[in-house]
Amino acid sequence: MQFNDIYQVVETEFARTNEIILEQLSSNVPMVEKIGHHIIESGGKRMRPLLVLLAAKALESNEQNHPLLASIIEFLHTATLLHDDVVDTSDMRRGKATANAAFGNAPSVLVGDFLYSRAFEMMVQLGSMEVMAILSNATCVIAEGEVMQLMNVKNPNVGEDKYMDVIQGKTAMLFEASSHSGAKLANASPEQAEALRLFGHHLGMAFQLVDDVLDYIGNADELGKNVGDDLAEGKPTLPLIFAMQNASQEQADVIRQAIRKGGTEDLPKIIEIVQSCGAIDYTQQKAQEHVNQACEAIAILADTPAKQALQTLADMAINRNK
């Protein structure tokens, strides 16, 4: 199964999701629509909405509201992207100028607030307290993860456990909430809901760990963002954390200094260190372990095209270049 085959499993539901997203971007304020369309239509794979739809399809649900839930998830994700790019002072995402680079920080933050608010309006329309409980908790955890990451910037003393806590919050939590809420809306059994929750968690962890790797071995044109962005911002990601613990003292000192000062002037040297000391292989191995756990979690589900699509999605999360 190829990536396009995954979308075909939920083709009708995915098309409806896109329609709802565009409908819900409507606003009496032109700037809201302009920035909303700029980031929503910038070419992302919409993996999190896809998770919602695949979870429902894997449970053979007849519930008609999954496209609405998938749209809510996409709005929450887009709001976090708008805020993150301001915090990180990013200027490129998915090969295009970020909203803050194109329109300024203040409009980007405020439109992010609008998308959060519209997502909760849509949750009310959905009418599921179980789903609202999952998503309201997720937004809190995501915000905490972002704050933890901010506290770790330019701190070379961050350990692996603390870093895993950060990516569980800032990245994996929304993946988890996507598959979990999709299962709950489909009236899953407790065992099925837990299986899909775990699948989303492990998929999100793997996805972020591969992002960490691509920041050092990726291609900017394929990634759609600048290589070395994490180092430029002084973020101690897993490749750097592993390298500081396993490279020579001299190499570790180079990394520590690079994290403290930020910027990319030492990027070629850092890339050489993380590759030579096994940090890239280690991070990829951790990502593979999470993919294995994701696939194990959904072993209890019936063998359907949707389940196969979920397994393919997990495999592709680590075998990608962007």
TrEMBL record:
<dbReference type="GO" id="GO:0008299">
    <property type="term" value="P:isoprenoid biosynthetic process"/>
</dbReference>
<keyword id="KW-0479">Metal-binding</keyword>
<keyword id="KW-0808">Transferase</keyword>
<keyword id="KW-0460">Magnesium</keyword>
<dbReference type="GO" id="GO:0046872">
    <property type="term" value="F:metal ion binding"/>
</dbReference>
<protein>
    <recommendedName>
        <fullName>Octaprenyl diphosphate synthase</fullName>
        <ecNumber>2.5.1.90</ecNumber>
    </recommendedName>
</protein>
<dbReference type="InterPro" id="IPR000092">
    <property type="entry name" value="Polyprenyl_synt"/>
</dbReference>
<comment type="function">
    <text>Supplies octaprenyl diphosphate, the precursor for the side chain of the isoprenoid quinones ubiquinone and menaquinone.</text>
</comment>
<comment type="similarity">
    <text>Belongs to the FPP/GGPP synthase family.</text>
</comment>
<dbReference type="InterPro" id="IPR033749">
    <property type="entry name" value="Polyprenyl_synt_CS"/>
</dbReference>
<dbReference type="GO" id="GO:0106350">
    <property type="term" value="F:all-trans-octaprenyl-diphosphate synthase activity"/>
</dbReference>
<dbReference type="Pfam" id="PF00348">
    <property type="entry name" value="polyprenyl_synt"/>
</dbReference>
<dbReference type="InterPro" id="IPR008949">
    <property type="entry name" value="Isoprenoid_synthase_dom_sf"/>
</dbReference>
